[in-house]
Amino acid sequence: MKYFHSILLLSLLIFSGCKIKTGKDTDSSEQNIQELISKMTLAEKIGQMYQAFDGFYPNDEALKNAVREGKVGSFLNVQGADRINELQRIALEESKHGIPLLFGRDVIHGYRTIFPIPLGMASSWDTSLVEKAMRISSVEAASMGINWTFAPMIDITWDPRWGRIAESCGEDPFLTSQFATAMVKGIQGNLDDPTAVAACAKHFVGYGMAEAGRDYNTTYIPEPLLRNVHLKPFKAAKAAGALTFMSAFNDLNGVPTSGNEFTLKTILRDEWNFKGMVVSDWASVEEMITHGYAANRKDAAEKAVSAGVDMEMSTTSFIDYLKILVEEGKISEKLINNRVANILRVKMSLGLFTKPFLDGKMAKDTILAKSHLNLSRELARNSMVLLKNNNQTLPLSKDIRSLAVIGSFADAPHDQMGTWVFDGNSDDSETPRTTINKILGKRMNFALGVEYSRDKSTVGFNKAIDAARKSEAIVYFVGEESILSGESNSRGIIDLPGVQKELLIELKKTGKRIILVVMAGRPLAIADELELADAVLYAWHPGTMAGPAVADLIFGDYSPTAKLPVTFVKGAGQIPFYYYRKNTGRPAANSDFTYIDDIPRNSKQLSLGFKSMHIDYGIEPLLPFGYGLSYTKFQYTNLQLSDTILNFNESIIVSANISNVGNFETDEIVQMYVRDKVGSITRPIKELKGFNKIHVKPGDNMKVDFEIKPADLEFFNGKDYVIEPGNFEVWIGPNSAEGLKAKFVLK
Ligand code: NOJ
Predict the structure, then answer these.
(1) What is the C-alpha to C-alpha distance for residues 40 and 38, in angstroms, rounded to an integer?
(2) How many CB atoms are located within 10 Å of the residue 453 CB?
(3) Is the bond into 587 cis (omega within 30 degrees of 0)?
(4) Which helix (H) or strand (E) segment is 572 a member of?
(5) pLDDT, tens digit, for every residue of 636-682?
(6) Would the CA dihedral through 266, 272, 277, 281 be positive or negative?
């Protein structure tokens, strides 16, 4: 065996009494689990339900003793292959029942090889690339002993103020569900493989609806919205085989999600038949006291365990109180047995009872492997969205006489990696400045302009303007640092920070072509910047290979293909703005719009038209969901339906012809949307129901088919899941605001 001493381990297990047999077939595994539980004391069972963070025990000996005595089931953030190996050895060989440990860590978008932030990954609309990226993340993490990661994060959000939008796949339940499936598959891989890592679908559920985008805030989500939007990606993750789920921090309709019987029991266990394990979020069990839902730690433990939490992360209400709660008859030992069975099932599914110890060589062979860096570059390139390209400003020729490269984000090795990079190392990053320098050498004129995003000083402006004057064109890198998005890093103002816009205004005065590259963890409100620049490439936080990926696109080795997984708003006042909003009783058209400055000073008008709109923002967002430009031009023609009647138990095919009428060979992300015209509850004005990334040569065209089945039209109406007959509209288009439209009837 290349990596592991499996024979040695197997013999160790045999000599140590082979504490558990593992079986491939579910029945024998279940039997083994029940047998094992029947031998465990209550204290040992409760031990399994605890996840300790590194540093929880006063010293290493105390930590090892806790493992020996079966007082802990999992560790969070214990690092180092050797250390993990040793603890796993103690668990398997020196603890009474030989139950292995789960080692959890947040490997969100890469371990050492960092991929784009998840919102960037989602912009690729490329589930196969993302699955590969997550597999690589797991392979690297597994080489360090990690066997459980707290990903994918599949919360839906409509609020770019929320810092964790960076970790999400954006606003759409269908797109997020596709990525949930791909990410779970990628993370877990083949469970028989030594590099399998358990995925954790989080945060269950509704966390992305935090009021005002303030992290950890209250959420109110009516059941139709919960089921039609927020639960969908989780259901997909479960179907893809996610071994674990994480309850969230938020209280949902008055009940914290870490003690919420409706979501954890009724939906997850009873309706979906989830057999894996639920871990709380960090301290979210005890935070139910702060929420005002639990009276004290004992009450919190009772509520969390009764609702459905199997393992408590970091805080100790389970290990401190569950025994007493059982003795008092408030929690039955049978319930504890069920909770422990869920945990053991995950350990068994991962093969941890027989998984051989690590060989130090594995990390050397995998961490930052060339193929990993190549995929990071490819995914980064596929995640950058071209928002504007006037007069074919891009691509630039590599023969350009001189190019000004300006802005702190041109050379931000740490910040280009984005949020949640515990193990990413900025020394591994290649920045755009480095790559462009490799390509252009002395023809690149670099100037910072501003030191960092929130810099209010204009002292660097002159150097930047000089560099711009000396150059044929300007690439100006702007954005927000990684610390401005991610957990707890919510912003109320989502404009470009500091004086970055002011510098853009000055650069514009040079008359040179300006390419703006934005690195950010959220869709920023960049209406003015979009207007000022000739071209805008929205790069998100692209990861380790930001430099080569940006260069691939701006110098035209590849065309941008990515499309927005979120609506871009003009300003925070438009939030929430998402494409599948309802029509309302008074929808406004552009022609209804009176701009606030055009209202006569002494107007005595009662109203400006009694329509649903803002008189300052209008009725459109800055950019619609699904939007993204290319170096070529695609034409959509010939929308056809195989039938205009869709019968129950049948399906129809909707198709269109997509022609590449420009002169760049590249991909196009073709999108299919549906509208249910009348429902027993009001229905969204559009819903994404399919997408396809196709590759078309200039002058060629391709017919793209989408199947629509009645089941695709199902929704929850407050009482039931229903598929309602009636009229539907269908679009095939390049984004959520454009496309060819047809109609069909479901009968
Ligand atoms: C809190 C975060 O909400 C969660 O996403 C993360 O996995 C845990 N901390 C563990 O670090």
Answers:
(1) 6
(2) 23
(3) no
(4) none
(5) 999 999 999 999 999 999 999 999 999 999 999 999 999 999 999 99
(6) negative
Mean of the pLDDT values across residues 261-277? 98
Q: Pick the catalytic residue: 281, 299, 428, 667? A: 281
With CA atoms as reference, report the closest residue to 138 among 161, 155, 113: 113
Quick one: tokens of 201? 């679908």
Residues 6+ apart with CB under 8 A from 713: 674, 676, 723, 724, 728, 746
What mean pLDDT comes out for the span 44-70?
A: 97
281 lines ligand 1 (CB under 6 A): yes
Annotated domain spans of the chain: 376-554, 634-746
Inform me whether the pLDDT recorded for 23 exceeds 60: no
281 flagged as catalytic: yes
Residue 628, phi then psi, degrees to nearest 5: 175, 140
DSSP letters spanning 679-693: -SS--BS-EEEEEEE
- For residue 615, report the distance from its CA to the centre of ligand 1, in Å: 40
Q: What is the mean pLDDT of the chain?
A: 95
Report the separation in Å between the CA atom of 584 and the middle of ligand 1, taken as the mean of its atom positions. Answer: 37
Q: Are strands 666-676 and 473-479 parallel, antiparallel or unpaired?
A: unpaired
Cα–Cα distance, 415 to 540 (Å, whole number): 10
DSSP conformational letter for 34: H
Residue whose structure tokens are 């209280």? 251
Pocket flag, ligand 1, residue 106 (CB < 6 Å): yes
How remote is the CA of residue 54 from the centroid of ligand 1, in Å? 14
249 Cα nearest atom in ligand 1: 3
Asked whether 494 and 529 are in contact (CB, 8 A), the reply is: no
Measured in Å, residue 312 CA sits from the centre of ligand 1 at: 12
Query: If one looks up domain 634-746 in CATH, what number appears?
Result: 2.60.40.10
Q: Which fold has domain 376-554?
A: Rossmann fold (3.40.50)
**CA nearest ligand 1 atom 10, residue:** 282
State the Cα–Cα distance between residues 541 and 378, nearest whole angstrom.
14
202 CB within 6 A, ligand 1:
yes
pLDDT of residue 14: 33
Q: Return the DSSP state at 114.
A: P
Question: Residue 494 pLDDT > 70, yes or no?
Answer: yes
Please give the backbone phi and psi of residue 130, each rounded to the nearest 5 degrees, phi first: -70, -40
DSSP letters for 483-500: GGSSTT---S--SPPTTH
Ligand 1 proximity of 487 Cβ (cutoff 6 Å):
yes
Structure tokens belonging to residue 456: 């209010």
For residue range 704-734, list pLDDT tens digits in order: 999 999 999 999 999 999 999 999 999 999 9
Choose the weakest-confidence range: 407-421, 503-517, 588-602, 662-676: 588-602
Sheet holding 513-519, edge to edge: 385-389, 535-538, 513-519, 473-479, 403-406, 444-447
pLDDT for 25 equals 62
Phi, psi for 313 (deg, rounded to 5): -90, 120
Give CA 296 to chain center in angstroms: 34
Are 293 and 259 spatial neighbours (Cβ–Cβ below 8 Å)?
A: yes
